[in-house]
């Protein structure tokens, strides 16, 4: 298979399995609280544990993929994800739930880094923001599907059935990835130097921080949004369905943002404006009864910056530095996504409400625009030095 859009479709579906698995805890959080007798702080830790391996695995994950190859690395990652789901499904011990979550997260880390590199291999230099937006769109799609499907499965059959479902989807991903083929150009370039120059490294660090903070903010909606609505008297299923509106509408807004960024050539104007609006919506959601209206606006606007932000690293990475660069990028992302839910859960426990978590998310998104400006400054300096 050599059509890059067909390849992107495969990468999209395989990456969807990560989002589906990640969201499985938040989707049935009230059910887990009842089953295990835990609070919001424990749920926040369990959510964040999925990203904990990223701090130590994202950077070497790029090197592992470079050594073992795209297909072998992705299959190994999917096997880890499947095994982790099975461990969680088979035990009623909270400590083993955490161990299974870590195993699943380790697979998710390796898979995320490798799939992003594979997508950039096929689209670097041509429609990269559009392609990355479509690729990133697998996340809200996976989360939205899980919010609709998993609460119903959990209510009818129990938490174990939820995690068996996530394991089955990961196993399907193994079959799909067998159809992947690398682009011819990457084979020749893979043998080059894998070292990043200092300014490129700094730019990737800033880009990874932006992506991490934006996702922390956006993740508060679907991680703690269901609990917030349950506090207000909504049923678990109704809360999950309402929050899923954000993710379903993001399926439209994410590729729209990438398309607009490529066409207008002003990705930062789009990303900054959308970030400011999203921060406002997060703060408004905790203080208003207009839940559906806010969630609809969040879905329509919240996905716009995804493509522009995800294309940042590709702007400064050559084919031979792409694997290690994506490792750096995702190390920052995973650090933010590990700490964000855990801190939010602690604050929610102290305050006695999940609303505090969404306020934290608003602050995280507000930090993104100045970092976007910093990234542009670093790239400008690097370009001038390269040309001189």
UniProtKB/TrEMBL annotation:
Source species, domain of life: Bacteria
Subcellular location: Cell membrane
GO MF entries: transmembrane transporter activity
Keyword terms of this UniProt record: Cell membrane, Membrane, Transmembrane, Transmembrane helix
Entry annotated with the keyword rRNA-binding: no
GO (cellular component) term, any one: plasma membrane
Domain annotation Major facilitator superfamily (MFS) profile: ranges: 7-379
This protein's name: MFS transporter
């Amino acid at each position: 298979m050599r059509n890059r859009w067909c390849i992107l479709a495969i990468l999209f579906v395989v990456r969807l399995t990560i989002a589906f698995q990640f969201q499985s805890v938040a989707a049935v959080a009230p059910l887990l609280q009842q089953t295990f007798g835990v609070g919001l702080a424990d749920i926040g830790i369990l959510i964040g544990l999925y990203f904990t391996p990223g701090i130590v695995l994202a950077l070497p994950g790029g090197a592992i993929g470079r050594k073992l190859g795209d297909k072998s690395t992705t299959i190994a990652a999917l096997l880890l994800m499947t095994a982790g789901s099975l461990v969680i499904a088979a035990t009623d011990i909270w400590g083993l739930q955490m161990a299974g979550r870590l195993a699943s997260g380790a697979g998710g880390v390796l898979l995320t880094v490798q799939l992003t590199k594979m997508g950039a291999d096929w689209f670097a230099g041509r429609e990269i923001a559009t392609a990355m937006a479509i690729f990133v769109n697998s996340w809200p799609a996976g989360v939205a599907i899980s919010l609709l499907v998993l609460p119903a499965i959990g209510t009818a059959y129990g938490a174990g059935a939820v995690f068996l479902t996530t394991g089955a989807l990961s196993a399907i991903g193994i079959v799909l990835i067998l159809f992947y083929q690398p682009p011819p150009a990457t084979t020749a370039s893979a043998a080059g130097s894998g070292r990043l120059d200092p300014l490129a490294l700094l730019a990737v660090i800033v880009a990874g921080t932006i992506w991490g903070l934006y996702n922390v903010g956006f993740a508060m909606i679907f991680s703690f949004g269901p609990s917030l609505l349950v506090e207000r008297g909504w049923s678990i299923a109704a809360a999950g369905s309402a929050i899923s509106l954000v993710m379903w509408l993001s399926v439209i807004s994410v590729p729209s943002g990438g398309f607009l960024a490529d066409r207008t050539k002003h990705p930062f104007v789009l990303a900054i404006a959308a970030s400011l609006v999203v921060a406002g919506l997060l703060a408004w959601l905790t203080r208003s009864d207009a839940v559906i209206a806010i969630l609809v606006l969040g879905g329509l606007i919240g996905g716009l910056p995804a493509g522009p932000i995800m294309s940042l690293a590709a702007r400064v990475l050559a084919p031979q530095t792409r694997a290690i660069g994506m490792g750096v990028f995702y190390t920052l992302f995973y650090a933010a996504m590990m700490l964000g839910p855990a801190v939010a859960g602690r604050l929610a426990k102290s305050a006695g409400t999940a609303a505090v978590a969404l306020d934290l998310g608003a602050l995280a998104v507000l930090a993104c625009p100045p970092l976007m400006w910093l990234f542009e400054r670093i790239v400008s300096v690097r370009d001038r030095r390269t040309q001189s």
